[in-house]
């Protein structure tokens, strides 16, 4: 069916009172951003609905991109008729929509909303005249008001008459950009992309901070992290990817700090640098993919010893999720296959065989004095590289190169 538009119903934002305007305009921007490849599509955001006018674009392809945008409760592909249409036009269009969906013995109901009070038929009359027309035209069709296979929605509005027979659940959440700005510590692993997804679901706009350590880590490891950022960009808008050179710090720490505290002190560097970048960019928090008790650096004691370097909130959306739960979300958001590609990241290479699971805060501070923290943090911050990453981009080399590197 050649639908004329996709009608988007707002999610939680409808309850947000005076912030509503901001929410709607942010959602409209995000929708524009994920649909930018469809040149003919236009977007019209109104108080209670957002209209994506297809102007001939393929509705399935458009809906596939819409599916990931936070702040959408449900959406429907719809046919729009002129607001002064005759009942016979509405009947005919209803018939076409049902025809598209009907299999043997289908049940249906009609849900009519009449916002245009000038329309010459009442809600009751509309339901009655369209319902009986459909029953006359399809002999297997039956009415079921409780659990119908098809719910034909008819909305009589000032801007037109809208018909839809499918209601699809959206990504829920809040539009990215309405929940403030933060930085995300994004590795190439399974957890941090999932944590990023969860932060974005609550409307937070994220800049990704990624630490890399050439020549210990490869170009491909960096590209993989960028590809993950690109996947995540599909949930909101473009993402700033900040790569931070970490080799010198890791070498220096490895040389001067006792092995048991290597990992804790490296993590302190990462967080301190991320916190500096966060403040510089006027953002207000740091997200990580940590989950309590998962590995040595993720005990309460360890978190305390690492958090010590900043007063910014460090937010951990995965804190109480199990690995299997995290993996199932990673599969759902399509980051899993990228995450499990076996490129070493900077941490695995410099992780000692038995890091302290309960580092002592005073000892941590003491051992850290062996290295010149401030100058190394400054040097790293001065040498970042920022790339603006959009949905659908790919930085990893072709499959063949990837395999040759793994051999
Ligand atoms: P992930 O699956 O996200 O890599 P993990 O289970 O491997 O997590 P760790 O390696 O201890 O756990 O990392 C904990 C968190 O520290 C990560 O979720 C991420 O937020 C951050 N982190 C680790 N390595 C990096 C990196 N190279 N760049 C940026 N952040 C990192
Ligand atoms: Mg990791």
Structure, described:
This protein is of the alpha/beta class and 407 residues long. It has 2 domains: 5-171, VC0802-like (2-Layer Sandwich), CATH 3.30.2130.30; 181-406, HUPs (Rossmann fold). It contains 15 helices and 15 strands. The chain has helices spanning 20-34, 59-66, 87-101, 123-137, 191-201, 219-233, 247-256, 259-280, 300-307, 323-332, 336-339, 346-350, 361-368, 373-382, 399-406, and strands spanning 5-10, 42-45, 49-53, 72-81, 107-114, 142-143, 150-157, 160-164, 168-172, 181-185, 205-212, 239-245, 286-287, 314-315, 385-389. The strands form 2 sheets. Strands 1, 2, 3, 4, 5, 6, 7, 8 and 9 form a 9-stranded mixed β-sheet that branches. It has a 6-stranded mixed β-sheet with strand order 14-13-10-11-12-15, sandwiched between helices. Helix 7 (247-256) runs antiparallel to helix 8 (259-280), helix 8 crosses helix 9 and helix 8 crosses helix 14. The protein is elongated. The model has no long low-confidence stretch (mean pLDDT 91). The structure holds adenosine-5'-triphosphate and magnesium ion. Residues 185-187, 189-192, 209-211, 288-290, 294-295, 297, 345-347 line the site of adenosine-5'-triphosphate (ATP). Magnesium ion (MG) binds next to loops.
